[in-house]
From TrEMBL:
Keyword annotations: Chylomicron, Coiled coil, HDL, Lipid transport, Lipoprotein, Repeat, Secreted, Signal, Transport
GO MF annotation list: cholesterol transfer activity; phosphatidylcholine-sterol O-acyltransferase activator activity; phospholipid binding
Stretches of the chain forming a coiled coil according to its record: 75-146
UniProt xrefs under Gene3D superfamilies: Apolipoprotein (1.20.120.20)
Keyword Cell cycle: no
Protein name: Apolipoprotein A-IV
Region of interest (Disordered), residue spans: 194-230
Length: 230
């Protein structure tokens, strides 16, 4: 009987030892994916602000043929337009990043629960994984519903600010109207790219960040104990 107990204990020890790297990889992969998502947001936000700078410089050049007094007034208004659009871009990035942090905070306890079960006693692991996958789908869907209106709000503010500037231009529009339309189109495309980053899915050949319950279940099946000598 003592030999049987020893053999079973050895099998359980071997199981826990074999699952340690998998447990750490599981948790690390979750954190890595969240950080990668945050990392993709920063360049997109920078591109958005760079587009504003580039197109506004074109607008300034288009004001050159106007009379000096008119040009100075419109340049001042243009600076105000640039400031407001950049502020909108920064607010968009801040709000989206805050929602990513909130998503991570909601899922982290579930990931930690699975991680601890993989490291130690695997009892209840199947249910923990099912809870995690269920919450993952729910929280990601809630995240997308929350951030999608942010892009729409940016575009709405953009339209209003452009219209105000067009009214300020009045009869002095010249070639400026064409540059304004191009700026609006460019910014809409950048915002679409920025928001599209949030919906980017991994390709089928990439490993899942969070394994499905049956995948882990296969990993945690203990080897049958060695035959006990009679």
């Amino acid at each position: 009987m003592q030999r049987m107990q020893t053999t079973v204990q050895e099998n359980m020890d071997n199981l826990q030892a074999s699952m340690m790297p998998y447990a750490n990889e599981f948790k690390d992969k979750f954190n890595q994916n969240v950080e990668e998502l945050k990392g993709r947001l920063t360049p997109r936000a920078s591109e958005l602000k760079a587009t504003i700078d580039q197109n506004l410089e074109d607008l300034r050049r288009s004001l050159a043929p106007l009379a000096e007094g008119v040009q100075e007034k419109l340049n001042h208004q243009l600076e105000g337009l640039a400031f407001q659009m950049k502020k909108n871009a920064e607010e968009l990035q801040t709000k989206v990043s805050a929602n990513v942090d909130q998503l991570q905070k909601k899922l982290a306890p579930l990931v930690e629960d699975v991680h601890s079960k993989l490291r130690g006693n695997t009892e209840g692991l199947q249910k923990s994984l099912e809870d995690l996958n269920s919450q993952l789908d729910q929280q990601v869907e809630e995240f997308r519903r929350t951030v999608e209106p942010l892009g729409e709000m940016f575009n709405k503010a953009l339209v209003q600010q452009m219209e105000q500037f067009r009214q300020q231009l009045g009869s002095n529009s010249g070639d400026v109207q064409g540059h304004l339309s191009f700026l609006e189109k460019s910014l809409r495309e950048k915002v679409s790219s920025f928001m599209g980053t949030l919906g980017k899915k991994e390709s089928p050949d990439q490993p899942l960040a969070l394994p499905l319950p049956e995948q882990v279940q296969e990993q945690v099946q203990p080897n049958p104990p060695n035959p006990v000598e009679s």
